[in-house]
Design goal:
The chain is mostly helical. It has helices spanning 3-19, 24-39, 43-55, 57-79, 81-92, 96-107, 116-126, 134-145, 156-165, 169-192, 207-233, 238-255, 262-268, 272-290, 293-302, 308-323, 326-341, 345-359, 366-375, 379-407.
């Protein structure tokens, strides 16, 4: 069977099961099993998929990073620091809508798989009293957390892209940094601008209340900054960094008289449904590798008559959708970019922009999974504004790239 017809059949199966309100993870795994059944039906491939999934360090980094993020969120929420931080920011900035966009964007600077779980409670707190649906809150949290995919020097996908494609790191950041601004403006226009708010004059605070809010702000932002520094300066991976910070915060809060019961953290951070979803999706991604589906897709595009930029865009978008990981589409597509034109910023930029778009439109993306799980929102309702944002972003990006490319 033609590989693209097979992928379309798998996608239809996934969409059908999602409509039946089955969890995302099992739906994705069912699509992967359909591909396996049509292509080979060899039990050895299923065993290899499971074995490789459970032996990859990426699997445990994701699972434990999510666990510690949820544990940290419990610490901050139960201690009152999270709510206090939101109040402090509302006094600092007059616009709640501005904060709805800025806070997940700021926390998105932390390169943690599934890290949208940390910014979600802040969006929830900011949205209290606003006429805003769960799907819109999910979309806001998910979109703005990823606007720095094009300009952050510590995003793993950016680091890999420069190394593989052979483009200078500083030049690549300069080449794509404007896309971050475009992503912010697009998301704000589509998802935030229409939110109805009634900006109330906040009551005058006492000196003691102001000091308390400053403390809450410090307590809430310190874990993010500390983890950021551990990842950047000390080369920690996400799970180790978050684990250490969560452990230390437990004692910091206790020392300040705001301790949280360790049992609430230990058991409250464990989410069995999320664990199942994550493992199923990771198995799906690995199944695509074991069955050589990804390799065949790349080969099919390489042998087509399409122009090179169109090939790069199509392959990046499709691989981004299938893997849901920046490292995934970068590792597969950037070698093609290097082969077609090493050091070509335009080709590398196309691969990055369309690959990120793909990972933003797929239920294989961990941040989307944890966001939907937190807000209890619908998948299709959440993705609708994201799709509109990506259409706008990719249209502007494509026009700009075409015009500047022609000028060279």
């Amino acid at each position: 069977m033609n590989i693209f017809i097979l992928l379309a059949a798998a996608l239809l199966l996934i969409l059908y099961l999602l409509r039946k309100h089955i969890q995302i993870g099992p739906c994705m795994l069912a699509g992967g099993l359909l591909i396996w059944a049509v292509r080979s039906m060899q039990p050895a491939e299923l065993l290899q998929t499971f074995t490789e999934t459970m032996s990859l360090s990426r699997t445990y980094d994701i699972v434990f990073a999510l666990y510690f993020v949820m544990g940290l969120e419990i610490e901050l929420r139960k201690s009152g620091a999270l709510s206090g931080m939101v109040h402090a920011l509302q006094h600092l900035f007059s616009s709640t809508k501005f904060l709805l966009a800025v806070m997940p964007a700021f926390l998105g600077l932390l390169p943690s798989l599934g890290g949208a779980r940390f910014s979600a409670p802040i969006v929830e707190e900011l949205a209290k009293g606003l006429d805003i649906t769960a799907e819109r809150k999910s979309a806001i949290n998910f979109w703005f957390r990823h606007i720095f995919e094009f300009s952050s020097p510590i995003i793993p996908g950016m680091i890999m892209a420069c190394n593989i494609a052979g483009v200078p790191f500083s030049a690549f950041l300069k080449h794509l940094s404007w896309v971050t601004i475009l992503a912010f403006l697009t998301g704000y226009f589509v998802m935030v601008r229409s939110v109805r708010t009634e900006e109330e004059l906040l009551p005058e605070e006492t000196a003691e209340e102001k000091q308390q809010e400053k403390t809450d702000l410090l307590l809430s932002l310190a874990p993010v900054v500390t983890t950021f520094l551990l990842v950047v300066l000390c080369d920690f991976n996400a799970s180790w960094g978050l684990g250490l910070v969560t452990f230390l915060m437990f004692f910091v809060l206790r020392f300040m008289g705001r301790g949280v019961d360790w049992k609430e953290i230990l058991f409250g951070a464990f989410d069995r449904k999320m664990l199942v979803n994550v493992l199923c999706i990771l198995c799906f991604i690995q199944l695509l590798t074991v069955t050589n589906v990804l390799t065949e897709i790349v080969y099919a595009f390489q042998n087509s008559a399409l122009p090179v930029p169109v090939i790069i865009a199509c392959v990046s978008l499709l691989i981004g959708i299938l893997t849901g990981l920046s490292q995934g589409h970068v590792a597969i597509v950037m070698p093609i970019v290097a082969a077609m034109g090493t050091g070509n910023l335009d080709l590398a930029g196309i691969a990055m922009a369309f690959g990120v778009a793909g990972q933003m439109l797929t239920p294989t993306h961990m941040c989307l999974i944890v966001t939907i799980d937190y807000f209890k929102s619908g998948l299709f309702g959440t993705l609708k504004p994201i799709l509109l944002c990506e259409i706008i972003l990719l249209t502007v990006f494509s026009i700009y790239t075409y015009l500047t490319w022609s000028a060279v």
